[in-house]
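Support reply, case 0932

Customer input (verbatim):
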Amino acid sequence: LEYLEQARDELMGISELQALWAESGTKLSTYRVEIQYREGAVYGDKLQVRSTAHQVSPSQLRFDQEIWKSGGDKAIVVAQAEVRCLDRNGEQVAMPDGIVARAASYPFANDAEPQPWPDATGDAAPARWISPLELYFEDTDHTGIVHQSNYLKYFERARQPCLGKEMLARLWEEDGIGWVVIKAVLQYNNNVQYKDDIEIRTRLKKSSTFRTSFTQEVWSKSGDRPMVEGEVELCNVSREGKLIKVPPSVKAEIKKELARQKEAMKAAA
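Our regenerated output:
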């Protein structure tokens, strides 16, 4: 998400975006992102982000973006992002003509390079797992709003209790079975600020022979609707990165969980 946003910023002009905020209090805010992961990239790969923009309303742009490996013959990541123009009060306003003209005038490509990972530290069924989330100032952008690229990390942490660290570790260490995200859809309904007291609500949505999907939402503890909504789809892979079926032990746990959620829906009705 960070690579894709950097490419969008460069397409529209970083200095132009900075001037827009400083002079008129107007900013571009990502409203919705859909992303498909078709192949992985590792530290050392040379990548290129390819972007095109389309104006879909007076206040909104849509970006079609792909990430390619240098010398590759297909995109390894395909994404679509919807961006809105907002004033200081969060109200939609018309997209400046200069931004529209620059964004829509030509396809754009820029280079990206994966960085090494730092050492790790520290009308639906009711949410099965609720994970309180502590926000840090480093999570925010220059306007004091939590940066949109952070939510996939928050969702990843919140999914861990679903199967538990012990099972996840055992599947990898003993059976060589891992989990990878292949698709994510995020919709940003409201800005999350540094001061907000929030939690992640997670529930299992469905499972098939090869895929498992989760619905995840960011809620203010005093709110009446989700601030961010997400759906994340995962599959299982072997140590060699080959697609494999959902393990029987996991399938059994998923079946029990879906039955529990069905009963919870009946009770709520």
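We compared this against your earlier run and they match. Two observations from our side: Residues 114-124 have pLDDT under 50 and may be disordered. Residues 138 and 146 are 9 Å apart (CA to CA). Please reopen the case if you see a mismatch on your end.
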